[in-house]
Design a protein that fits this description.
Chain B: One of its GO terms (biological process) is DNA-templated DNA replication. Chain B: GO terms for molecular function: chromatin binding. Chain B: This is Mini-chromosome maintenance complex-binding protein. Chain B: It holds the Pfam family MCM_bind. The structure holds two protein chains of two kinds. Chain A is of the alpha/beta class. Chain A has a five-stranded mixed beta barrel. A five-stranded parallel sheet of chain A has the order 13-16-19-12-20. Chain A is elongated and about 130 Å long. Chain B is of the alpha/beta class. Among the domains of chain B are: about 200 residues, no CATH class; about 230 residues, 3-Layer(aba) Sandwich (Rossmann fold). In chain B, the strands form five sheets. In chain B, strands 1-6-7-9-8 form a five-stranded mixed β-barrel. In chain B, strands 13-16-19-12-20 form a five-stranded parallel sheet. Chain B is elongated. The chains are: A alpha/beta, B alpha/beta. Chains A and B meet through α1, β3, β6, β7 and β8 of A and β2, β4, β6, α10 and β10 of B. β9 of chain A pairs antiparallel with β4 of chain B.
Chain lengths: ~850, ~650
């Protein structure tokens, strides 16, 4: 075992060093001019550490002591044996990586950090070859005390001190993170974290690099450039503070600092050779994770002759098999004992660029990650994560027999910290992480834009510029994109109020409805596009699938859940079958999806706005019929749409002329010219994202008044003619529209102009969709009950006329059906169809006035 | 100073020369590209470079300059490599600097070792593209592009002593000419190969020419014996052959996209060491955790044996607007030569158009209207996208095709002779359910597995719906049909990345042949009205092709490619006229003319003008377009009423 292992690992020895040169620092000045130095105290401790067997013996003893020895022992030990401020106690960066589980202060063992890698050891070896005498050399500044780690400008003592100051003093009351629950933002944040560690016992301290940067720019730079030197120093500093404060604390091992959110690189595509060996943060999606790989940290050898045992640590990825037994001097007698060797966990993960970061027309890049110890199995394929780690490149040797080397390096990232970006998406409102970060200039620019008086019109114009006119529809969709404010009435028992605006477009085929839908789908970050024809209830909601490998039931989410917080575009809405449509009832008002399937019962959030398009049932819109009759959708569903627009082909010469000019221009204008005329899609997208994320308008006093008035007015119009013309749902729609309009203006308060526009738009939409074709009057009951008030009145009138007719015939027990119809027709001045007649009969039958059996009508 | 042959045969030594001269500063890389750019600019120098498209890999000299006309099928992750490295002789301690660019393996002498810790080492980045020959490339493209390289063939003959053992048998050619054009180029090729290889490479020099012939005409790759399971070379279309290549790009790789057609000039690397790497690593992978980060599948795909998938280290790469070898490669440049070519051709445009129309009319069984529309279709191209709307796509549905005879089959064969790249998709329940249309990402092997719809721009996709029977489509089938529909309507394909889908815009000319109206969407439906029904379709169609002189056929080809690249505009005056016209038409009967119809008419007018070589719309053309549309519509209505009566 040991001999084959040494062959590949010999290359790795080279590899460790090979990763040095690419750092810009090294490339600039030859290594010999730099000296790695530690504090004078630690240099003494450097040499014996790596191989000294006593340390190992001590470690096992210390581990035992951790659990068995009484606390007093440790307590009393402090003043006697240890000087807390001495780096010796915690190990220097170099000694810490040796992977020896030595006893730390008060028995808390140090745990090796494979994530920081072994590349450093090369430097240490160089150091030894240079000789210890030269080791301590003052560099740079005239200050004699400024000693730095070889190859860097990091001074351990000052670095530690500065980090401690950061931990103790950093306060940022404004910066809120989702993990900050229970933290007092006006107290030093990281001290509270340490307290948490004391209580919870998880010895990891996550440090936001952004905080560090705002606190100490230089320290941040050092961390980014020399993570493998600086992070151990941070560990030291954190442990000192921690054990100073909580001397009695029992931890599994010493605290490890995990920095995250380094601003160095956000996008995988930007990685370049200069990032090698630096701390980087990239975002991406996990696509594959390997099995757990046990990596040997320490090999256990036993002599087969005299049973003498020895331990050999991994050194630059390689185990040096002892060729001679120290005890009996037999050569090649040492055999590796697997069971007693030490291994650490390791996992290979493939990370793929997230789809948003990808330039169009290229395939996504991937990068390999190595996760160690606790980070193994923290992420699953499909997770979106932000990874902070050290970027590595190692050369590959082509063939051990030939000295030539493959000139390509293998690159990977040693993971230090994961941060899942969407783990909470399905559970709660998670605005903080959803928000796209905008640069200040961009925000400034957007705010500038929002101050323009005609911003609403401007944005509406920028929406799908290739689709001609239909301004009100575009305005409606624009408001839908912005959405209303989310209101929570859970405590009063009504749950969340819907903030999303639903829109239905119906109209003649070929009026670019699909094109509008496609545009919206392409514009919003979380949009889904489905066709009513092709989707089933299952595809829209969620389904349960059995994972073929693990035999585990997995909930797969469909289009509606996927477009949570986005827009779900459904084309050919009318072609959707009943059962699928019924799912939408819940989604469109409650904004949730309930699933009870294969033992999984749950309620998923589906706060999606729905933009649907429907074609009339007769393929051409029949102006003589109502909306309901034209599209044959149940009114229960229709009433859930805030706005219903008709996209009809207007018969108007001026319109035709403008349309023709517009279309002709499409056919010869160059692309650049077209771009100029309209607002950029990217600007529009950012504008919407910013408004959705940061603007949350509330109703103002005046606006509330005018909303009330508007609602009362709407009710009044109807009541004069004995019909209901508005329901609370309409009021809710008005509020949402007004809020959305305020968002367009980036205004925190809904004002009268917003209400005015909401009213206007609502009226326009109603005028189109709820006008009774028989009377020409806008009648909301067409949408809410599926029948216009006049139609209902007519039905009643006809029934009464029929009753009169029958009564006038005297006491005949039964009448002929056809005879009755003919009589009624003769009597009435309007044409009466068979359907109308039957309806009247049914109405009378409901009143228990008569019954219809076959072709005869019997009176009761 | 290197002589003419050197930069072709051993470009690396030239790079070495430039590198040695400029080593302290980093300007050497630029000088190398400039040197080769200059060399290739010289008269017809590009023709001297052997093409990987025509010559099998094993006949090419390793580390020589080659060219390759290909489509980017997949992009791998960027690689970091040793741009400059230092070797050290352990005995003498002598240090030498080397360059790693244009190489797969960092080489060093027998007594030397690479110093990985040297401060001189420079790490650089390069990008690997997985390239395949242009999918569906017509036989004539291969043939002509090979024949235009006589310079290379004769030069190689002149340079090295010609092989006496083999004389090309010329009589075969005339005998074959009429029979089968598809077989023709390979025969031709292999004759030349026989010559070039015998002189070009010393390894194969002794090989019996007879054997070479059989090898080449067999046409398949030489699969290395140690690679037991055949490697899927990931061609988008089934039955494709030709080398797939790993193309290493050193600069401007951001400008290339998936499905771009490139012509690359670079250094061929078939170092057998590369194959050793794989087997070595496979053996050791169990022991070394570093190496097992890639699965064996990924290994196989990303570093396949060099004999099967050669590497090209790119010195120069350019995107191609078209792959028609009859035209100058780049038409945009203000070069006098190309201008001259274009103006010459434009002057004789109308007879060519007339002849082409006649040819297609015969092909469409005497239907001149359909032929007119077919021309418009063949020169259509997506010239712009307005937010989501692609402009300039012109999908024609040729309905009323006779079902029984092999009409569609032969029609495709004719189109194949006219356009540079095409594919015939025979729709059937079987093929819809079982073919792979949409490319998808295979995460185990970390590559994009190609599908039928991964095609280069301006490929003609002929969909034959006449063979479609009633039946049940399964999930895959529905997806495939949806993908086809999306392709036609939006000119984009959503590639499947398992966790998400990604949109890739494309520009594919789709022609649908069907009996009734197609189930797929189309921009315009033309109902075929055959004037003649030939008793023997086969004979009729093939006689059509033989009747056309090769020179005329070439003119057709130039015509179709050239017109696609022309610019187009509409003057204000005509815009006004069109406006008036539209308003007038709507006034009479608003039902009959919709915005959609105007779209169609404008499209027809655009391509009609272009087909006559006019880059602006004239009033006459507009009227003609209207007339054509009216004829087409009348025919459709007539067809509908006929069908109605029958029912």
């Amino acid at each position: 075992m040991s001999s084959p292992a040494s062959t590949p690992s010999r290359r790795r020895g080279k590899r460790g060093r090979g990763s040095n040169p690419p750092t810009p620092q090294d490339a600039r000045s030859p290594p010999s001019q730099k000296r790695r130095t530690d504090d004078s105290t630690s240099t003494g401790d450097l040499q014996p550490m790596p191989t000294s067997p006593p340390a190992d013996v001590q470690s096992s003893g210390a581990a035992d002591a951790l659990f068995s020895s009484p606390p007093q022992f440790r307590h009393s030990a402090i003043p006697l044996d240890f000087d807390i401020s001495s780096p010796l106690t915690y190990g220097t960066p170099s000694s810490r990586v040796e992977g020896t589980p030595r006893s730390g202060i008060r028995g808390t063992p140090v745990r090796e950090r494979p994530d920081l890698g072994s590349a450093r050891k090369a430097r240490q070896v160089d150091l030894h070859s240079d000789g210890l005498a030269e080791d301590v050399v003052a560099t740079e500044q005239s200050l004699g005390q400024r000693l730095v780690i070889w190859g860097t400008d990091v001074n351990v003592a000052s670095c530690k001190e500065r980090f401690q100051r950061f931990l103790q003093r950093f306060i940022d009351p404004l910066d809120k993170e989702d993990e900050d629950i229970g933290l007092d933002l006006n107290e030093p944040r990281y001290m509270q974290r340490l307290q948490e560690i004391n209580m919870v016992g998880e010895p990891f301290l996550n440090v936001n690099c952004d905080h560090l940067r705002s606190f100490d720019e230089n320290l941040y730079r050092q961390l980014i450039c020399y993570p493998q030197e600086v992070i151990p120093t941070f560990d030291m500093a954190a442990n000192e503070i921690f054990f100073d404060r909580y001397p009695d604390s029992i931890l599994e091992h010493q605290i490890q600092v995990r920095p995250y959110n380094a601003l160095k690189t956000r996008n995988m595509r930007n990685l370049n050779p200069e990032d090698i060996d630096q701390l980087i943060t990239i975002s991406g999606m996990v696509i594959r994770s390997s099995q757990l790989i046990p990596e040997m940290q320490e090999a256990f050898f036993r002599c087969q002759v005299c049973a003498f045992t020895t331990r050999v640590e991994i050194d630059r990825g390689r185990i040096a098999e002892p060729s001679v037994c120290k005890n009996c001097n037999t050569t090649h007698s040492m055999a590796l004992i697997h069971n007693r060797s030490m291994f650490s966990d390791k996992q290979m993960i493939k990370l793929q660029e997230s789809p948003e970061d990808m330039p169009a027309g290229q395939t996504p890049h991937t990068v390999a990650l190595f996760a160690h110890n606790d980070l193994v199995d923290k992420v699953q394929p499909g997770d979106r994560v932000n990874v902070t780690g050290i970027y590595r490149a190692v050369p590959i040797r082509v063939n051990p027999r030939v000295s030539s080397v493959n000139s390509v390096y293998k690159t990977h990232i040693d993971v230090i910290h994961y941060r899942k970006t969407d783990s909470k998406r399905l559970h709660c409102v998670d605005e903080e992480t959803e928000q796209k970060r905008f640069t200040e200039e961009r925000v400034e620019m957007l705010k500038e834009l929002s101050k323009k008086a005609d911003i609403y019109e401007r944005l509406a114009l920028a929406l799908a510029p290739s689709i001609y006119e239909h301004e009100d529809i575009k305005k409606g969709i624009l408001l839908q994109l912005f959405g209303g404010s989310r209101k929570d009435f859970t405590h009063t028992g009504r749950g969340n109020f819907r903030a999303e605006i639903n829109i239905l477009l119906c109209g003649d085929p070929g009026t670019s409805k699909s094109q509008l839908l496609q545009y919206v789908y392409n514009l919003v970050p979380r949009g889904q596009y489905t066709s009513g024809k092709g989707s089933s209830a299952v595809g829209l909601t969620a389904y349960v699938m059995k994972d073929p490998e693990t035999r585990q039931l997995v909930l797969q989410t469909g289009a509606l859940v996927l477009s949570d917080n986005g827009i779900c575009c459904i084309d050919e809405f009318d072609k959707m079958n009943e059962s699928t449509r019924s799912v939408l009832h819940e989604v469109m008002e409650q904004q949730t999806l309930s699933i009870a399937k294969a033992g999984i019962i749950c309620q998923l959030n589906a706060r999606a706005s729905i933009l649907a398009a429907a074609n009339p049932i007769e393929s051409q819109w029949n102006p003589k019929k109502t909306t309901i009759e034209n599209i044959q959708l149940p009114h229960t569903l229709l009433s859930r749409f805030d706005l219903i627009f008709l996209m009809l082909d207007p018969r108007d010469e001026a319109y035709d002329r403008r349309l023709a000019r517009h279309l002709v221009s499409l056919y010869y204008q160059s692309e650049e010219k077209m771009e100029e005329e309209y607002m950029d899609m990217a600007v529009l997208r950012d504008y919407i994202a910013y408004a959705r994320g940061y603007v949350n308008p509330r109703l103002g006093e005046e606006a509330s008044q005018s909303l009330i008035e508007a609602y009362v007015d709407m009710r009044k119009i109807g009541s004069g003619k004995g019909m209901v013309s508005a329901y609370p749902r309409q009021l809710e729609s008005l509020i949402r529209l007004a809020e959305a309009h305020a968002k367009v203006r980036f205004s925190e308060k809904v004002e009268t102009i917003d209400v005015e526009e909401a009213k206007r738009l609502h009226r326009e939409a109603l005028k189109q969709s709820a006008t009774d074709p028989r009377t020409g009057i806008v009648d909301i009951s067409i949408l809410t009950t599926g029948m216009s008030a006049t139609a209902r009145k007519r039905k009643e009138e006809l029934a009464q006329a029929l009753r009169k007719l029958i009564q006038s015939k005297g006491k005949t027990p039964s009448l002929k059906y056809q005879q009755l119809l003919d009589d009624l027709r003769a009597q009435s001045e309007t044409a009466i169809t068979k359907e109308m007649f039957e309806e009247a009969l049914r109405a009378l039958a409901d009143e228990d006035f008569l019954t219809v059996t076959g072709k005869t009508v019997r009176l009761l | 100073m290197p002589c003419v042959g050197d930069w072709l045969n051993s470009p690396l030594s030239i790079v070495q020369g430039i590198f040695a001269q400029n080593v302290p500063n980093s300007g050497w890389e630029k000088k190398v590209t400039e040197y080769f750019k200059e060399k290739l600019k010289e008269n017809n120098a590009t023709n001297w470079v052997p093409s990987l498209n025509d010559v099998p890999v094993h006949y090419l000299k390793p580390n020589s300059l080659v060219k390759f006309r290909c489509m980017v099928q997949d992009m791998f992750d960027p690689e970091f490599y040793m741009g400059v490295y230092e070797t050290v002789d352990p005995n003498t301690n002598a240090r030498v600097l080397h360059f790693g660019k244009y190489r797969d393996v960092a080489e060093c002498g027998p007594q030397q070792e690479i110093d990985l810790n040297s401060s001189q080492t420079v790490t650089s980045e390069r990008q690997t593209f997985y390239c395949v020959p242009v999918p569906g490339e017509s036989a004539w493209v291969k043939e002509i592009s090979f024949l235009t390289e006589p310079a290379y063939v004769s030069a190689s003959q002149a340079r090295v002593s010609p092989s006496t053992s083999y004389t090309p048998s010329r009589h075969k050619r005339s005998y074959e000419e009429d029979e089968d054009m598809d077989l023709h180029p390979s025969k031709q090729k292999e004759q030349h190969l026989g010559e070039s290889c015998c002189c070009g490479s010393d390894i194969h020099g002794c090989v019996e020419p007879k054997r070479l012939e059989t090898e080449a005409s067999a046409g398949h790759h030489v699969i290395s014996p140690n690679c037991s399971p055949p490697l899927d070379l990931n061609f988008p279309l089934p039955g494709e052959k030709g080398p797939a290549c790993l193309v290493k790009v050193y600069e401007n790789w951001e400008s290339f996209k998936v499905n771009d057609v490139l012509e690359v000039f670079g250094i061929l690397s078939v170092d057998p060491v590369l194959s050793i790497v794989n087997s070595e690593e496979r053996d050791s992978s169990t022991l070394d955790p570093m190496e097992c980060m890639d699965t064996s599948e990924e290994q196989r795909v990303h570093s396949p044996p060099a004999s099967l998938v050669p590497r090209i280290h790119v010195i120069l790469a350019q995107k191609l607007q078209h792959i028609n070898p009859l035209l100058p490669a780049c038409l945009n440049e203000e070069e006098s030569k190309t201008c001259e070519f274009v103006s010459n051709f434009m002057s004789e445009l109308s007879p060519v158009r007339a002849e082409l129309l006649g040819f297609l009319t015969h092909a469409l069984l005497g239907d001149s209207l359909a032929a007119e529309y077919l021309i418009l279709h063949l020169i259509s191209t997506v010239y712009a996208r307005r937010d989501v709307l692609p402009l300039g796509k012109f999908t024609v549905n040729l309905s009323g095709c006779p079902r029984s005879s092999a009409f569609t089959e032969h029609l495709y064969r004719l189109i194949q002779h006219l356009v540079p790249a095409s594919y015939h998709l025979r729709m059937s329940i079987e093929s819809m359910n079982h073919s792979r249309f949409i490319p998808h990402k295979d995460y185990a092997a970390n590559r994009l597995v190609s599908g039928l719809l991964q095609l280069a721009s301006n490929t003609s996709l002929v969909i034959d719906e006449t063979q479609l029977e009633q039946g049940q489509l399964d999930t895959a089938g529905v997806h495939n049909v949806t993908a086809l529909g999306n392709l036609i309507t939006w000119q984009k394909v959503d590639y499947d990345f398992n966790y998400h889908r990604m949109e890739f815009p494309c520009n594919i000319n789709v022609l649908i042949t069907s009996e009734g109206r197609s189930l797929l969407p189309s921009d315009c439906q033309v109902h075929l009205q055959p004037q003649i029904i030939p008793p023997n379709m086969e004979e009729y169609m093939s006689s059509l092709l033989t009747a056309v002189l090769p020179s005329v056929l070439n003119k057709f080809r130039i015509y179709l490619t050239l017109l696609r690249l022309l610019d187009y505009s509409i003057s204000d005056e005509v815009t006004k006229a069109v406006e008036e016209d539209f308003v007038e038409m709507r006034k009479n009967n608003p039902e009959s003319v919709t915005a959609d119809d105007l779209h169609k008419m404008l499209l027809v007018a655009r391509f009609l003008s272009l087909s006559a070589g006019q880059t602006t719309l004239s009033r006459e053309r507009w009227l003609r377009a209207k007339q054509l549309e009216a004829l087409r519509k009348a025919r459709l209505q007539q067809q509908q009423s006929v069908n109605g009566n029958e029912l």
